[in-house]
Amino acid sequence: MGSKSSESITETARPDRRRRGDDARKRRDDTKSRILDAALEVFLERGYADASVAEIVERSAASVGSVYHHFGGKGELYVALWQDYQRAYLDAAQAAVRAAKESGEADPADLLVAGTRAYLERAWAQRELAALFLGLDAPAELARLQRQIANEWIRQNARLLRSTGPEGRLQVAILTGMIGDATHAVVHARDRRECRRLIARSLHYVRLLATDRGE
């Protein structure tokens, strides 16, 4: 009887522990989300250099200890937001390429144009956020990550265009850099009309370079 009672207590305790664990994770996630949301507001208003952890703490209603526990400091907060930004842009471009493939498009240049269009349209839709992350006001530790993401975009575009060899890699590197420059132009467009013209011109150049075989 004693053994059965112990088993019953243990079985009852397990769901309680799971619930407590789930609740703790939810609280941690909620705290991190509040901190990130507050940090983004402060960075957008003040830029990276003039932002302070104290203001982020105040807006998030979190403690200083929570900020440093979850992120380590202002630089790490900026990097976490930048990584979310990059993932969202990569997802948008990849989703556009998948949609184009599903509609029957198979030409590599047309697929790249579809992905680039989605990327640039997102940059315009989120131009304040894009301008923040495209600027020079950023923590020093971001430079290494920027090189990594640039190389990842080059790999993605090379795979899409089936580019190989030194000349193919050079072509894709130039093309990827051009898309980055186009993003800067689109983000700083004066209005939607100018944005549309810049995107159309950018896609024209993307297609030209993507179809160039160096002959």
Quaternary organisation of the protein chains: single chain
| Poorly predicted runs | none
> Sheet bearing the most strands, described?
none
Write the CATH architecture name of the largest domain.
Orthogonal Bundle
Overall form = globular
Quick check: average pLDDT? Answer: 90
How many individual helices? 9
The level of helicity is over 70%
Task: Report the portion of residues in β strands.
Answer: under 5%
Question: Roughly how many Å apart are the termini?
Answer: 87 Å
Q: What would a concise description of this structure say?
A:
It comes from Naumannella cuiyingiana. The chain is built from 9 helices and no strands.
Structure description:
There is one protein chain. This protein is mostly helical and 215 residues long. The chain folds into two domains: 72 residues, Arc Repressor Mutant, subunit A (Orthogonal Bundle); 138 residues, Tetracycline Repressor, domain 2 (Orthogonal Bundle), CATH 1.10.357. Helix content is 85%, strand content 0%. The chain is built from nine helices and no strands. α7 packs across α8 and α8 packs antiparallel against α9. The longest helix has 49 residues. The chain starts with a helix and ends with a helix.
